[in-house]
Amino acid sequence: MNNKIHNQIWTCAEISPALASTLGAKLGISPIIAEIFLRRGIDQPEDIGRFLSPSLSHLPDPNLLKGMEKTVKRLLQAIERHEKVLVYGDYDVDGISSTVILVQFFRQVGLHVFYHIPSRLQEGYGLNGETIREYAKEGVSLLVTVDCGISNIDEVACATSFHMDTIITDHHEPPAELPAAYAIINPKQADCPYPEKNLAGVGVAFNLLVACRRAMREAGMLSGEINLKRYLDMVALGTVADVMPLTGVNRIFVKYGLEEIASAHRPGIEALLTISRVDRSIGITARDIAFKLAPRLNAAGRMDSVHDAMELLLTDDAAVADEQAYRLQQLNLQRRKVEEVIFEEVNGCMAQDRNYGGKHVTVLASSDWHEGVIGIVASKIAERYFQPTMLISMNENGVGKASGRSIPGIHLLDMITRCSEHLNRFGGHQMAVGFSIDHNNLEAFRNSLDNLVAEQLQSHKLQQELTVDGRLNLGDLSFQLLQDLAQLAPFGFGNPEPIFVAEELEVNRASIVGKNHLRLHVRDHSAKSNAIGFNMGDRQISAGDRIDLAFVPQINTWNGNQSIQLN
Length: 567
Prior knowledge:
Blueprint: E1 9-11, H1 17-27, H2 31-39, H3 45-52, H4 68-81, E2 84-88, H5 93-108, E3 112-116, H6 129-137, E4 140-146, H7 153-161, E5 165-169, E6 183-185, H8 201-218, H9 232-241, H10 248-263, H11 267-275, H12 286-302, H13 306-314, H14 318-352, E7 362-366, H15 374-385, E8 389-394, E9 399-405, H16 412-418, E10 425-428, E11 432-438, H17 442-459, E12 465-467, E13 470-471, H18 479-485, E14 500-513, E15 517-523, E16 528-533, E17 546-551, E18 553-558, E19 561-566
Parallel strand pairs: 1-12, 2-3, 2-4, 4-5, 5-6, 7-8, 13-14, 16-19
Antiparallel strand pairs: 8-9, 9-11, 10-11, 14-15, 14-17, 15-16, 18-19
Helix pairs in contact: 1-2, 4-8, 5-8, 5-9, 5-13, 6-7, 8-9, 9-10, 9-12, 11-14, 12-13, 12-14, 13-14, 14-15
């Protein structure tokens, strides 16, 4: 199945309509919803029931995480001894939210707690030996990492040399050699029986709090009850912002976390919702996190002012929260401007010369680019030109920090690992990488990477694909259907909003609205509908054309009136 608006292949898994009908009747769900489950590989009634009714009681035992029991014993020891503890986080939303929940919990149980989130520009990602040395002078005897640490062999050794025990909580891929930490909690480490491997850093941290509270309760160490459900607003923030799959454990975290965000019991969340202009009348969604809350929090780390985000989320003072939310709003506006300048520069060059920066990959560097935003731009360029993209911010010493983004079918970490002789250091995963490189090695790295990707493309030609969940006539669309589809929320990575295809639509009207959006009025034999294609203003669609349309049906509200719109 092909289409006129995008050069994509649309794929729709074949299923048995009879099975969908039977499954729907058994579970009391519509056949269309049953078809979606079947096409997404969920065919057991028990699994569908859990999906539709996620519950905190379905969460696995946190003690299944390797290293958890040892970690909890050490924390209880720290509480009894009144030790000083350092929580060491990261400057993205996952790292910030992880730090917030550990700091708040440790304060609640009476620990003397410090926290440190490194400067993106001055310290970079992960533990820093000099920082550890400074906190050792403060008498810190226990270091707990969140969303980092799994690769910091030398820095953990540094902490040990200062008589500091290190507990690593992380979710990144463990290297072959692990740090000699007191304990490590990471669902991806070898022999870890915890069933969910794709937790965010904050998901790992929350499991630690659940296990610690239980152990304290059993030991009679709690003077009052601690409601950990209130922490799920931070867990939802970090999970969605770090693009974790919204299935299984993460689905439970985000569903309940969205409820906590909606309650806005945290002054910082209330201030952030207000300044982000989130429409609370229709409920808070994962999309609100991804496109409104997270970018403002991430702006603090990207523009090297992460303290503002921490103060926003930790404060109990509404006035302070309002002030910090305003600061984040200004940082985000600044971030957008910087990002737009870089994007226009790169996109302008690519538009003139498709092979600018490489034939099969794009590898570009500049001393004028802010390293805090190049990852966002790389993602946009990779999506627009459908090839892996690495953008590098060079400093005055000729050393660059890079952010790379891939496309489906190209394992970017594997690729850069195979040409890592040109790099100072590197890390990442299939779809995103970061690395440091000397300017003198840039050309050799670009050529090596381009050749590797070319070899893979020779054996496996890539084609943009869009997976759709079913075919509909326009007459099938109804408010009841949208209500049924809402049962599948929260939507995000791993659980996208259902996409449908309507075929052989006649275009009655076509126009450009806003900056570059395509508005259509279409009809088939059963009904007519309005459609909007965001950032599709350059598509050649005219009245009288017949098109196939892939869309997400959504409710559009205008002047108090509601209608179904195809997005």
